[in-house]
Amino acid sequence: RVAVAERDLRRTNVSVRRYEMVPVLLLLMVNIGVLGGALLGTGDAERGTLPFLRMAPLRTGQLIAGRLVGILLAIGAVLVPVVAVLAAIRGLSPPAAHWPALGADLLATAVVSAGIGVAFGTLFRRSTTAALGAVVASSYLFFLGGGLTQIAFLPRWIRVASMAVPTRYAIDALRQSLFYPDLHTVGGDLLALCAFAAGCVLLGVLVLRRRLA
Question: What whole-number distance in Å separates Cα of residue 123 and Cα of residue 121?
Fold first, then answer.
């Protein structure tokens, strides 16, 4: 009979349930942002309101800003109660000094998902196609961001590919804020998320400008 003599090198105070709750929370945000933005955009084509947008005395940036704010409000309407409940039952219990970093991470992730949703809603003309594309994109963002396991445990080519996925930095920053005593890597993760957010918003502006042209 062969058995394993296990000696843990360090103790952990984080349960598997709490650890895996982090990517699920991010998946909720990404689904609402991408799917909601996609359906909001395809509604213009299906309702026939696109010509009115072309004649409206608004700039493309103003239209994008209005849609982003609407999507962010939808994300906040779902996310704020969830975070409040999790904080009340100690499902989310970061150190007091980590709450600003946690909030910045969630806000940047919401902007990224909203920007992707705006681009999807402008690219597709039918809500069914946009919904399918949004679900597929959200799933890829979840898995390549480390939703099921740590990125470090995956093959090298997946680790390299995940560097171009914004959810990788969002999940890393969220775990660092919740489960570790310092914010050693959060600054770099937030910078990467802000860059992705700016890129997603710019993509939405360019795609919507082309549609309105």
Answer: 6
User: How high is the mean pLDDT in each 10-residue block of the chain (213 residues)?
Assistant: 80 73 83 84 74 72 79 88 86 84 89 84 80 84 80 82 88 86 87 88 77 68
- Cβ count within 10 A of residue 147: 19
What does the alpha-carbon distance between residue 124 and residue 9 come to, in Å, rounded to a whole number? 52
Given this model, what pLDDT does residue 191 score?
92
Cα 60 to Cα 36, 48, 116, 212, 213: the distances in Å are 19, 18, 16, 8, 10
Burial class (CB in 10 A: 0-12, 13-18, 19+), 37: buried
Q: Are 117 and 60 within 8 A, CB to CB?
A: no
Sign of the CA dihedral with 52 first, then 53, 58, and 59 last: negative
